[in-house]
Amino acid sequence: MFSGQDKEGLRPLYTQVATDAMHYSKDEYDRPKCHPETCKAIIEEIIDWAENDNINNPFMWVNGPVGSGKSTIARTIAELLANDPKYTGLFAASFFFRRTAPGRNNPSRLVATIAYQLTKNVPKLKRRIAVALTKEPFIFTLSYEEQMAKLVAGPLMDANNRSRMSLLPNFEALLDLIAGLLLQLIYHPSIVEYGNERHRRLVIIDGLDECGGVEDQIKVLQIFVKAVKTVNFPLFFLIASRRELGIQMFFNEDRMNLISRRLALDNEQYRRDEDIESFLISEFRNIKTNHPSASSIHHDWPGQPKIKLLIQKASGQFLYANTVMTFIKSPKARPMAQLELILGQGHSTKHTPFTAMDELYIRIFESAFGSDSSDICARALEILSFLILRGNGSILEIGDVEHYFNYEEGDVQICLNDLHSIINVPLPGGSIIEQPPSSALHIYHTSLRDFLLDKKRAKRFFIDAVHCHISLAKRCIDHISCSFNPKLRTENSAIQFLQDHVAFDAVFDSVNQPPMIDLPAIVKWAEGNETFQFFWLYGSVSTERSIVARSVTQMLQSRGVIAATFSFSKSDPTRKDASQLIATIAYQFCRVIPAVKSAVAAWIANDPCIFSRSLPAQLEALVIHPLSAAIQSAALADEESTPSHLVVLDSLDECEHKDLVLELLSVMVQGAKLPYIKFLIVSGREIDIQNTFNEAIVGPCSERFSLDDQIYRNLKNQAQEVLYQRVLDTVRQYSALNAIYDPGHLDGQRYTHGTQTQVLERILGWAGGRDMQYPIFWMYGPPGSGKSTIMAQVAATLIEQDKLAASHFFSRIDFGTAFVPTICYQLARNITAFRAPLAAAIEKDPAVFSKSVRAQFEALIAKPLVQLSDKGSLLGKIIMIDAVDECGNSEAQLEILSIIVSACQSPDFPLSFLVSGRPEYALMSFFNREAANSITLHYNLNTDAQEVDRDIEMYLRSRFEDIRQNHPAISSSLTNWPSDSVIELLVRKASGQFIYASSVMKFIENARQNPVDQLDRILGLKSQGNEAPLASLDALYSHLLLSVHDWESVAPVFKFLLRNFQAPKPSTLSDAATSLNLELEEMQAILSDLHSIMYVPPANQPDEEIRLYHASFADFLRDQSRAGPFYIDMED
């Protein structure tokens, strides 16, 4: 019991606790938590880690830019684990750092606060912590490491050790145990073992970046890392912070890679925009119900367009969304007027909607620069002005900025070193943290732009847009004027000012492919001296006009026509109007015609405000005039060699202000004196476009072609086929083609007819629909049991039955990065209907192949398959995955399996999976979990030893028959060679291993040796000389043992097993532990990497036999010439 003396002993602890840093404190409890409809995927991933992966990865770093919801998620997780009965015993403590709160802005009260919460959540620690305080009364003057060791680690380890030593718990402890087990059975039936992972508890640390300086932050992490290195240390840690440089570099260290998981909140897979939309809709619904002025609010308010605009402004920033809704729902104002203020459409009032945002940004800048007005601060604002005002240009590298401002290499990173929470600043040498795009320099949130451009909000950090535009324009002109200096960077920097106004997404992708279609009328018009300056290609949406436009452009480019393209899109802010049209066209001509580039540069130098002028003025200055100058120059004087110049305007009907573009057509007609510019207009049949092409000015200068005509129907299939071929070629580049099934996968282990019939019948029966409730078939067996041979035979059969959708045969050098493209490539080849949604997915996100395996699977396989109209035709088709245990490390293996299980849990996913592998601990644990087990059919190849022996005997007899028939050194008289007793001996030596039998037969059938002598060498009747008959088997065993982390601890266990290998009484786990003076748990830990070659009973079944699966492994360990460094000397 906890005595009054013990309570008095804890009194010094109470004075050191930061009471408002705990999640249930008044300060934290009233702060926002995740809305019930948001952050579901994130919370599920964290809970899954906390329940299932906290031993291998005792750290999870939840990271993201400012305002991304890190604290909200940490707060939600803390309350969920602390209060939900089904997570009883999982929560230990929490600490929420705050830069502005004394006692919470440094580590001084961290250990005491954790220790205090442990006394509440783990009552048996009260006395132990009180004793520790009594023994060391000045403990809070010691280092943080000493505090952690004496107040947290020491009491925890003492409690755990005493629990293990106590075989018969006292009555009170027994009642506690029974009550705990009853709670677990009621709330979490899957957890019934006493002493399992549930006794590991989570510590949540939020806002680590707000803890003192970098040294304090790293010190906190080092304290925790040192603690988890202690054997059986029962705490694990969730760390939430911004991606500050020091914290990033700490988690990027090799040692942290091995023991931590990362969760980047700005990763696209978490769909933060959808979460923000759910939050906004819910908040607006509450306003319309509960606000004092609710009766005057229309039921449709605010409308989807305004919600979408708020989502766009939030840029994934929950802080922005929460700040906005707090302002709008103020009871002292009308919500509709407040919303108009937010959107910049209302009249200013004394209310300031972004006070919280402004304070946050000011605090970040003050922390970075303080009162400093030096060159570093000025340069940082100069760089920010460039990032904010440059428009929607190409990806911006750090080197581009340093060149643009004439900085020294590394200056940008120095200037922005303390702004990682609001700006993506790539680390030197790259970072494993996901920061899309990883190498680009950009601000995270549009709210920062609004803040910096508002003098009242940004104060001394204000960026004067007009002044900066002038400064940047002058610098651009300086670059343009020397753009042909070979010592300088070329186009990307030389005409940066022009590039800043280019809509790059509007430019057709350049491809080196044969022409997609052949339209003679367009070829004749584009290449000839036709009087028609315009060609109008029109049709309904179903005609896939953009595909045709791209095909036509590609075809003409292949014939020497110089084309500039612009594809309008009402869903893209940079392409929904014509504001960037002329700059985009001019930029493309600049890239391929040096004389045009020179003329454009000169014009911009004379008129830096050109992009503020009308579209006709821009067209005249940046397209017509430069091309005229280029044609008249000496380089293009010869008309015979002058190429045609084409401007392609695609999807004109999607332009919001197409009236401005149509007005341009009249200006273009005036440029008809320029015979080498022609315009291909692609659109629908909108009446205003039709009227323009029918009017007196444009009509006589135009030709037209309807895509709805019969001729297009004849061309469409050809165009799509070439497009799909391009998609296949793209996916092929990222695929591991050698992982796809082909007969070579048998690699000499050819299938012998009549063998392995039981497993083949079971798999093919499942594939035929016998067990439709199980979309996953998991076949496992020890090394050498013939898994890959079986998989290859199944693949051959499924191909004959037209049921093989795709396959991936893993090897030891395959880390799984090409898994999704490899499967995707085969699906596109084998399933015609899959190609269209796949092409759309790649076009929507060309960078998808650089994303995580899960994001690739979702975008390239799951969504396209679900979109198919005839999914029923795919039922029964199989994706095969062989040797999943050889894929990279266990983390990569489990990620792929987790993706497969998630897909199969969806009723809309039409395919099934056949997976094979060794019975590694991590894999078996995964498939035994409820989520996987409920949809998986398990098959153990090692269950029927007699069946396997019969198959091996049949295999050996078949191969010996081949040798007798075909080997040149065998006499026809040897009809009875080898004898039945020899075959029986080989079967016994194989111990169920097909790889042993295969290795033996490869050695015997060597065409340069006598098979009889080779067999005698196998049997030990003749010297083997320099030959290695079991080289492939030895390589397999060596590979398995190389993965063992502590060979010196494993070797004595093997020596014990070898001594008792053929003993009449089998050795139990308890026998081995007693003989080696080890605890049962220690034995299991030592042998955790060897489950594929030996049977290790659970710790709660110590009287079960511990054994090697194969006699050949015992032979290997005893033979120094074969085992090498793994040789077990039985004489020692």
Automatic annotation (TrEMBL):
Q: What residue ranges carry the coiled-coil annotation?
A: none
What Gene3D superfamilies does the entry give?
P-loop containing nucleotide triphosphate hydrolases
Determine the domain of life of the protein's source: Eukaryota
Keywords from the UniProt entry: Repeat
The protein's matches in InterPro entries, at most eight in alphabetical order, are given as: NPHP3-like_N, P-loop_NTPase
Nephrocystin 3-like N-terminal domain boundaries: 38-159, 520-683, 773-918
Is the keyword Cell wall biogenesis/degradation assigned to this protein?
no
User: What protein name is recorded for this chain?
Assistant: Nephrocystin 3-like N-terminal domain-containing protein
